[in-house]
Amino acid sequence: MRELTYVARRTVEWREAPDPELQGAGEAIVAPVAATPCDVDSAILAGHGFVEPPFALGHECVARVVETGDAVASVAPGDLVVVPWSINCGSCDRCRAGLTAHCEAVPHMAMYGAPIGGSWGGLFSELVRVPYADAMLVPLPTGLDPVAMASASDNWSLAWRLVAPHLKARPGARVLVVARGSIGLYVCDIARALGASDVLYVDPEPEHRELARVFGAATAETLEPLPQGFDIAVEATGRVAQLALAVKSLAPEGICESAGNHFRPGELPLLDMYLTGVTLRIARDNVRAHIPDALALAASGKVSPKAVVSHVIDWEDLPTALPEKHLKPVFVRADA
């Protein structure tokens, strides 16, 4: 089979690899049918990652089940499924607590799309082995478009987690989104659908701001801190200065969720945060626990995740099109 391999800054290529085989009765082999780059993939392609190439890239996709072991009960060949980005067993203490990104059964940070915690391959591959199929794979609800939900492996479900539980606890909260890409736009859509009283989206890209306005958000290219302005802030830029802006804009006891990958050090306004009583979470997402709820919201018709898909591109064009700067391209296979 072929797997898309990151080899250098802005450079990926197809490389041949052995077809994956079942290594246990609880495993599955899947074939991605719609795959998309995560915001962190864009950072890797720009040369900002912390793992040296080459390695197989990709950790967001909807796939079709090709083969299952005898013990797999939740999916069958032919099913469309969401493949979560992190490898997790579903049965250890951490997995049962919802901490699926910290599974005790696999090496720390085991994941698709980077050789961290082992070599699990990438989801821009023709075939992928899923080691704990019943725990990991989530059937795609009938009627949901694989292209629209290609990001449910990570960014869409992460966006749900960043804002939905907080809006349930704080109905009608004011939400600030400081972003550069798809995660922040998904948050705008979800926040509006779940009853946020106001959403402000801050992003220098005019095309992104235009889409945020479609989702009912007010927008700004830049923003000075608005003390006591927002109940919930989401930072998805990977820039510490923008994270500082977000936390300085919170109301007393406000909550800030940071979804940016902070590859560079920086300083936060700790005294301001102390005086305001800020809760800040910078977290590697335990996405598997959130995928069913995120899919249910998508299936409700209250949100429009496909609106964030900027391009639908043929799978064969991955080596040339992936390094280009697109908001949220989805690569589709006709043969899977």
Task: Provide an overview of this structure.
By secondary structure, this protein is of the alpha/beta class. It folds into 2 domains: 2-154 and 287-332, Alpha-Beta Complex (Quinone Oxidoreductase, Chain A, domain 1), CATH 3.90.180.10; 155-282, Rossmann fold, CATH 3.40.50. The chain has helices at 39-45, 93-96, 133-136, 155-169, 182-193, 206-214, 240-248, 270-276, 291-299, 318-321; strands at residues 2-8, 11-16, 28-35, 55-56, 61-68, 80-82, 128-130, 138-139, 174-179, 198-202, 218-220, 230-236, 250-258, 279-282, 311-314, 329-332. The strands form 3 sheets. Strands 3, 5, 6, 7, 8, 15 and 16 form a 7-stranded mixed beta sheet that branches. Strands 11-10-9-12-13-14 form a 6-stranded parallel beta sheet, with helices on both faces. It is globular, with a radius of gyration of 19 Å.
List the helices and strands and how they pair.
Blueprint: E1 2-8, E2 11-16, E3 28-35, H1 39-45, E4 55-56, E5 61-68, E6 80-82, H2 93-96, E7 128-130, H3 133-136, E8 138-139, H4 155-169, E9 174-179, H5 182-193, E10 198-202, H6 206-214, E11 218-220, E12 230-236, H7 240-248, E13 250-258, H8 270-276, E14 279-282, H9 291-299, E15 311-314, H10 318-321, E16 329-332
Helix pairs in contact: 4-5, 4-9
Protein name: Alcohol dehydrogenase catalytic domain-containing protein
Keywords: Metal-binding, Zinc
Organism: Streptomyces camelliae
